[in-house]
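As a warm-up, study this chain.
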Amino acid sequence: MSIIKKQDFIDSVADALQYISYYHPLDFVQALEKAYEKEQSQAAKDAIAQILINSRMSAEGHRPLCQDTGIVTCFVKIGMQVQWDSDMTVQEMVDEGVRRAYSNPDNPLRASIVADPAGARKNTKDNAPAVVHIDMVPGAEVEVAIAAKGGGSENKSKMVMLNPSDDVVEWVLKTLPTMGAGWCPPGMLGIGIGGTAEKAAVLAKESLMDPVDIHELIERGADTTEEKLRLEIFEKANKLGIGAQGLGGLTTVVDVKIKTAPTHAASKPVVMIPNCAATRHVHFHLDGSGPAELTPPKLEDWPQVTWEVGENVRRVNLDTVTRDDIQDWKMGETLLLSGKLLTGRDAAHKRIQDMINKGEPLPVDFNGRFIYYVGPVDAIGDEAVGPAGPTTSTRMDKFTDMMLEQTGLMGMVGKAERGPATVSSIRDHKAVYLMAVGGAAYLVAKAVKKAKVLAFEDLGMEAIYEFEVEDMPVTVAVDSDGNNAHEAGPAIWKAKIEELDQALKG
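Now compare it with the structure written out below.
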């Protein structure tokens, strides 16, 4: 029997959440390095480079990999011979660890959890409660697997009740392209098959806690049904050509994880949950001897990747750029933005819409300006702003026509694709949509030299800020003619991959 003390458990959870906020799992870093070396699409290669550089910077600076520091999911396996020295439940102890981790003054993490989800959606201010799964297992230890999952990737989760004779691979290949790039590929796919609907979802989420080992599996070959499915989905998913950030390329997934459970003879539940380029998880064990000790990785374990803008980069002064100027920008072009950049996302856009509908004056003049879809982490020390990577732009699609038509907004910066109606609106208003790399939040924040709140301060990280940026790298994702990199890139690379396959067979 072992006795697990309340304080040891809480401290271990808090330490683990701080740890994963700035340390990628090294197996994931190594998988990204393989993808970087292999990649032939320049846009995708540049995106992976920025993700790897951001990863090293976060490890060095002990600051979040991504501004979306996630909803906490915790799998707790409790040995049957464990005794607790605690007046709190396991859920309560995990939640207390979350509170301490997210309010750590040395590395504050963004509180993103809202209560009353179908109603007022009020921020809980401390990122609690966590989602906790508890299993009783043999032994005298407590095993904890803990992750912080961003909303962009979690929102792309898919679930289906297949017929028993239906092909799981066929469903995955049909579904993956519909998920867009909001989950920030390249990442991992976790797939749960069997049980019931909710069991398949838990299996999928838990599978993402496993290390990246697909290349080892390729070398030794598959033995089980799950392993055969992993290899088939890995190969065929990457032939879709979606690529890093959805811009087209050779690597869309760096691993595929599958867990299964027995199911009803009439059922075949399948859930697919992606992990983004800011994959964050860690395992630890408690045996009663004290809190978990997490060994920091060595900085020399990160690849020495550099990223330099090409000769054809266009430098843009946001304070003087005109609508005529942006007509020359072409899809896929790299820009370096300098000057004043507004920010705003879901809550701010909803409030702007309400004010316009009521005929109220807006607190900010958007005419001829650019808006960045971001909810930054609080700054520390001499930072102008904490990690400030883009949020998924698709969520702002329902407001875009209003912003372009009624506020005079000229352009937007975010991540992932825009919907067809939004692309048409961008074209009709001769505006542009620019893409920053999701999963490179600390790197992006280094381009922000000043930041101040202009409106809606009560919304916290969703307030409207004005950033002063210097050489902030972005890609023209939708130009003023409506040319769309998230359509063209994957289509081009899917065809190129098919050509490469034919050449190899030839």
